[in-house]
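Reopening this one. Same input as before:
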Amino acid sequence: MSFKTFIPKVEVKADKKWYLVDAEGKTLGRIATEIANIIRGKNKPIFTPHMDMGDYVVVINANKVQLTGGKEEKKEYIHHTGYLGHLRRKPFKEVREKNPKRVIEEAVSGMLPKNRLRKHFLERLMIYPGSEHPHAGQNPTILNF
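Same output, byte for byte:
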């Protein structure tokens, strides 16, 4: 008896659902793994690694995400301008205050596969520093992890 693996056709588009995640008081890495799995579509039974099957995720209260241990003081975000000696380092607290979207976006991006689909996955991630978001019309399902 042989079983065939189900591979969805390209024409068949999966239903794109909307999810709402409140990042207040949550650990950055744990919330980023869950978001990456939903954006990629690994929570669906029709998941296929080479296709875009994921859903939309709206993250609110991004400026209240936390790190464990002493990482709030030690973690740095590094950027190189391309010129010799121009390596820029910014501490986590400064980045979270100025651009809280970057903190969650880089964490989720690092957990996605490094291929052509990554750009499309990240387009479905909406991050807001406060508790207000303009996606109420999509009736997002609230996720608790």
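So the earlier flakiness isn't reproducible anymore. For the record, Residues 28-40 form the longest helix (13 residues).
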